[in-house]
Design goal:
It is a single chain. The protein has two domains: 124 residues, Ubiquitin-like (UB roll) (Roll), CATH 3.10.20.740; 70 residues, no CATH class. It is built from six helices and seven strands. The longest helix is centred in the middle third of the chain and has 17 residues. It is globular and about 55 Å long. The protein starts with a strand and ends with a helix. The relative contact order is 0.13.
Length: 200
């Protein structure tokens, strides 16, 4: 077993666990949006940032991808962590202003507005990639993919054409943290696949 501390509480973890997994085992809250137990963690949303401290030295890490090791000292609610989370939530509010889930999470952390420009008032997809990962890792199909990069990044079927590979299983809708995929599913499976799913 690996032994370390979270918020000055001594905890134990299995080798190979992450800081986030250990925190959840002990009921210690760390907010997440892009994390789901059924797929590999990616650290995309960065909301799960925690602070590692050793003497006067410290650093922020994404707890969902940071492996545990003996002697770690982890803090989940330092001012530095809170500031980073508020900053991230402000960016999410500007990028996905239509997401009720993001709005509620932001309010829970004291964020009610954003200093950043709102690009699309109807956007609700945080581009976390959970839908693409569950389609590839769990369903084994990869009917959804990430298109372009940077500010032009989008989520959809390869080449933005409805995919005949999609089996309309709904896994992408289930793991989506904001419900965005539920409103986009027909862009992935297309009308033909949708009709087949209803007939089946």
């Amino acid at each position: 077993m690996v032994r370390f501390k979270i918020n000055d509480i001594e905890v134990t973890a299995e080798p190979g666990w992450t800081v986030l997994e250990t925190a959840r085992e002990y009921g210690i809250e760390i907010p997440t949006l892009c994390f789901h137990e059924c797929v590999a963690a990616s650290g995309a949303c960065r909301l799960c940032m925690v602070e590692l401290k050793e003497g006067s030295w410290s650093k922020l890490v994404a707890s969902c991808v940071y492996p545990v090791k003996d002697g770690l000292t982890v803090y989940t609610k330092t001012e530095r962590v809170k500031n980073v989370r508020r900053w991230i939530l402000e960016m999410l509010l500007s990028e996905t202003p239509a997401s009720r889930e993001v709005q509620e999470l932001a309010r829970a952390h004291g964020v009610t507005s954003t200093r950043f420009n709102v690009k699309d008032p109807n956007e609700d997809c945080i581009l976390c990639g959970l839908c693409t990962r569950v389609c590839e890792e769990v369903v084994g199909i990869a009917a959804i993919s990430t298109q372009s990069r940077g500010v032009h990044k989008t989520i959809g079927p390869p080449f933005m054409q409805p995919s005949e590979a999609c089996v309309a299983c709904g896994s992408c809708v289930t793991v989506c943290p904001t419900g965005a995929m539920g409103r986009r599913i027909d862009l992935v499976r297309g009308r033909m696949n949708s009709e087949k799913a209803r007939v089946a």
